[in-house]
């Protein structure tokens, strides 16, 4: 009986912390157009305003190369990027109250 109470307590206390985000990001396309140029498409699903930062992943940390802003569901296209580098995309949702959902990112994006 004691185990059931502990389980119920855990579910009540920790259930709110595991709530899912209403915002999402997805890499739709990451291709090498040619030897010197690549294209990266990111799908953003949200009802909020957002800021999307494309960065190059380096040993010293991410180095921003482009930034785009928008509102609502959109597909952002980054063109003429170096196809030989590894990228990271970070999207910040302005006005998001849940701190776990305020910033979402995709790392280790390689153009193929």
Please compute the radius of gyration using only Cα atoms.
18 Å
SSE order, one letter for each helix or strand: HEEEEEEE
Q: Tell me about the biggest sheet?
A: 4 strands, antiparallel
| Number of strand segments | 7
Question: Which structural category fits the helices and strands?
Answer: mainly beta
Q: Strand order across the biggest sheet?
A: 4-3-6-7
Q: Could you estimate the helical fraction of the residues in percent?
A: 10-25%
Low-confidence stretches: none
Overall pLDDT: 89
Give a nutshell description of this structure.
Helices cover about 10% and strands about 55% of the residues. By secondary structure, it is mainly beta.
Report on the structure:
Helices cover 12% and strands 53% of the residues. The protein has one helix and seven strands, in the order αβββββββ. The radius of gyration is 18 Å and the shape is globular. It has one helix spanning 2-14; strands spanning 24-32, 38-45, 49-56, 63-71, 74-81, 86-94, 103-110. The chain is mostly beta strands. The termini are far apart. Strands 4-3-6-7 form a four-stranded antiparallel sheet, with no helix packed on it. Strand 3 (49-56) and strand 4 form a beta hairpin.
Characteristic key phrases:
single chain, 112 residues, mainly beta, 4-stranded antiparallel sheet, 3-stranded antiparallel sheet, globular
Which secondary structure elements does this structure contain, and how are they paired or packed?
Elements: H1 2-14, E1 24-32, E2 38-45, E3 49-56, E4 63-71, E5 74-81, E6 86-94, E7 103-110
Antiparallel strand pairs: 1-2, 2-5, 3-4, 3-6, 6-7
